[in-house]
Amino acid sequence: MLADGQLESKEPQLSFAQSYVDGIGANPPELIVFSAPEPQAPRPSPAPAIPRPEILAALESTAHRYGGHPALRRAGLSVTEWQALFQANIEIESAYRPNARSSAGAIGLGQLMPATAAQLGVDPHDWQANLDGSARYLLLMLAQFGTPELALAAYNAGPDAVARYGGIPPYQETQNHVRRVMAVRDRLTGAS
């Protein structure tokens, strides 16, 4: 309570009500309520996908198998950073679902296109081979383009598109893919 006897509000006032009586007839008083619009609550972030233990173990062992790749040194990525990037890409590509299939025909955890899988010599339906092929393909893109962002763009849109535009192509899907993978990578590494 304030010194003058008024009650102290603990929250800002969002509305008030006033009773108006015109004094004519026996009508009950009208109640008019005035209120401020309620603020929009921020949309909750979707819950991160959680890999099955065997998939997480395979992700880690695959990332470590390629931890000494020259593309990582040239891009300045540690093995830990590489593992987070690789895992983030798999999370966004398939949400860790080994049987994921896209409308474009991409298959498995790494969403390899059949032609890319054939080029890499992997069976895209074998989830462990798919992971291995996905890691090698992402490393090839990293070796060719030098940064995680460009490698992810090439992984998504193809290396020809990145070369043609001299950077991340102006495709909404590819730009969103790069942003989403980098955000998951940041979440996995605890970066803000």
From TrEMBL:
It comes from the Bacteria. Pfam families: SLT. Coiled coil: none annotated. Gene3D superfamilies: 1.10.530.10. Residues 81-176 form the Transglycosylase SLT domain. PANTHER family: MEMBRANE-BOUND LYTIC MUREIN TRANSGLYCOSYLASE C, SOLUBLE LYTIC MUREIN TRANSGLYCOSYLASE-RELATED. Belongs to the virb1 family. Belongs to the transglycosylase Slt family. This is Transglycosylase SLT domain-containing protein.
